Amino acid sequence: MKKLILLTAFIFTAFLTTDSVKAQDGFFSNAKTLEKGVGSVALQPVFLTNQDDFMFIIRGGYGLTNSVTGHLKLGLFEDETFFGGHFETALNNSAESNIDVAALVGVHSYGDLGLKLGLNLSTDLDAVSIYSGINYQPLFIENNTNHAILVPIGFDVHLNEGFDIMLEGNIPANDDARYLEAITFGTRFYF
């Protein structure tokens, strides 16, 4: 309980102390949740193609239960810092079908407060997971709300039990999401 209180305090402090720039983090994962007690760390370079800019994200994940994973992320963008967290919950798993489905709910801050609401679908072809879905990221900017909707499409390649590489494209589904158009890749380590 003490760790949860400290984590919550850290998240709210980060939200209140960041500056305003527009950024996003996509899915960067297939729709499988981590098993209870399993953790992960990921390194994710992001090329914001419409902004012609670069961002670097460090991610952490932890299996809270066998069907719920908690995620935290810290992004560096020029002299700005992006911070966010979300929960991912399995709606089904491949034991029931060939398609995994997960829902994502979270918050992020890059000066302005934003939400992350997503539906992630994936399927495995041997050691490669192919994933896509819908990623709605409303950003609350002063007296306006930006309603960005993205369609992430990605590949998660499982090289061995403790190491994956990923490639993802984030395609804007509406005008509000054009600034979030991105190509991202990176690695994830499990422990």
Draw up the topology in text.
Blueprint: H1 2-17, E1 39-48, E2 53-63, E3 68-77, E4 80-92, E5 100-110, E6 112-125, E7 128-141, E8 144-160, E9 163-172, E10 182-190
Antiparallel strand pairs: 1-2, 1-10, 2-3, 3-4, 4-5, 5-6, 6-7, 7-8, 8-9, 9-10
Put the structure in a nutshell.
The protein is mainly beta.
List the main descriptive attributes of the protein structure presented here.
62% strand; Porin; globular; 10-stranded antiparallel barrel; mainly beta; disordered N terminus; 191 residues; single chain; 8% helix
Structure write-up:
With 191 residues, this protein is mainly beta. The chain has one domain (2-190): Porin. Helix content is 8%, strand content 62%. It contains one helix and ten strands; from the N terminus they run αββββββββββ. A ten-stranded antiparallel beta barrel has the order 1-2-3-4-5-6-7-8-9-10. A hairpin with a 4-residue loop joins strand 1 and strand 2. It is globular, with a radius of gyration of 16 Å. The two termini are 22 Å apart. Mean pLDDT is 86; it is low at 1-21.
The radius of gyration is 16 Å
Helix content, binned percent:
under 10%
Measured by DSSP, the beta-strand proportion falls in over 45%
Largest sheet: 10 strands, antiparallel, barrel
Total count of strands: 10
* Shape, principal axes of CA atoms: globular
CATH class: Mainly Beta
Count of helix runs: 1
Assembly state (oligomeric): single chain
Strand order of the largest sheet: 1-2-3-4-5-6-7-8-9-10
How do the helices and strands follow one another from N- to C-terminus? HEEEEEEEEEE
Derived from helix and strand composition plus strand pairing, the structural class reads mainly beta
Taken together, the total number of domains comes to 1
Low-pLDDT runs = 1-21
Q: What CATH architecture would you give?
A: Beta Barrel
